[in-house]
Amino acid sequence: MDHDSLITSEMSEIFTYSRSIIILLFPFVVLHYYSAHYYHLPLWSVVKWWGLNITKVNNAFPLFLGLFFTLLVNYLSVSGLVNILSLSISSEQQDLVYLGHMNENKAAYYDNDDLSKQVITGYDTEKVYNFSFNDLYRSQTFLKDEGSEGVGTKANRLHILSFVSSIIGVIAFTLTTIIIFNVFIHTAYTANPTDVILPTKDALSSFDTIALNFNFTRGGYFLLMGGLILTWLGFSMATPKNNISEPLFNLPAYITTNKTITGIPNEIHIRYVKERRTTDSNSYDTVDSGERYVNFEFTKGFNHTVYVTTLIDLDTHANQLEEINRNISSNNAMTLSLDKDLHISIPIISN
Q1: N or C: which end of the chain has fewer CB within 10 A?
Q2: Over 90: is that where the pLDDT of 134 sits?
Q3: 164: enclosing H helix or E strand
Q4: Could you give the number of structural domains in the chain?
């Protein structure tokens, strides 16, 4: 790496770390301002009180669980928005050729313009696995920070609908975090009264008083919050998918319809589904579907290792489950069948 490239890489790392710090601090700055402005309690006082008194508070665990998830979603929404803003100001474009999914959500690519053709991996939240040879060797455009390594972000994230969706998401989830954290602040506040006198000690009622400063009732606040979340979902779903090219290269001649081939299994993973707890319930449990993703790698005739996955049913493939696990451990190949769409399947062996 030359001197200029090294400086660019170091600057990129500093910028990335600085951005991460801003993203992490954002919700806490908002909560500190809210707590200090409306309750005259700095955030650290709230944290200190809860640290000393957590065992004395009823239902503390579900409160913390709710706060954790809202902070997590808030972090992800702020991270997405900051990433979009950063890439819109300065970014490096790369067209990556798809090699399949190495395992769940983790895709493999290489930069066709890079003479080394080094494999790059990155997480793809839009796709769990690759199920067909037909999807290989297709190119997509990604954007990354200049001088940084890795896959980066799909170019469609800079679409105006994605940008608007990110702004709405940050507002919606920040409002959600505030309503939950208000319970924490109010609990600490009533145990440590200040000169500020609120008309009630009930956390939601005190929130009503604060909301009136913005001409909102509690119901109006919840309607706004719900409307923003629905709008965020709508804009997210309306954002165009990233453009995917036609295959740039031909597959090896032996990869053709209705043929038998071999591949090495590298992972087996449970397919989970959601089921209602009862017929008339709105609650769901995540359960084992009785199916398994089996991921295979292929090298014969390919310049890079490529990955294709099949889904098996334990009822029909019970006799092969032990064989699959054994071949994963020993890195041995298995016989597979190709259908007309170049999906793979494991032939069923009966007793």
Answers
A1: C
A2: yes
A3: helix 160-191
A4: 2
Nearest one of 265, 268, 246 to 307, comparing CA atoms:
265
Residues 173 and 309 in one domain: no
* Pair 266, 341 in one domain: yes
Domain encompassing residue 205: 3-88+159-238
Last residue of a domain, one of 212, 238, 264: 238
The answer to whether the beta carbons of residues 179 and 221 sit under 8 Å apart is yes
- Which is it for strands 153-154 and 260-276: parallel, antiparallel or unpaired? unpaired
CA distance 36 to 68: 21
Q: What average pLDDT does the segment 10-37 reach?
A: 80
Amino acid at 202: D
**Predicted TM-score (pTM) of this structure:** 0.69
Return the H-helix or E-strand segment holding 5: helix 3-39
CA atoms of 73 and 66, how far apart (whole Å): 11
d(CA 126, CA 135): 14
Residue 329 maps to a domain: yes
Q: Maximum CA pair distance of the chain?
A: 81
Confidence of residue 268 (pLDDT cuts 50, 70, 90): very high
Residue 93: name the closest of 155, 172, 139 by CA.
155
With a cut of 50, say whether residue 199 has pLDDT above it.
Answer: no
Q: What average pLDDT does the chain have?
A: 81
Give me 246's structure tokens.
């036609």
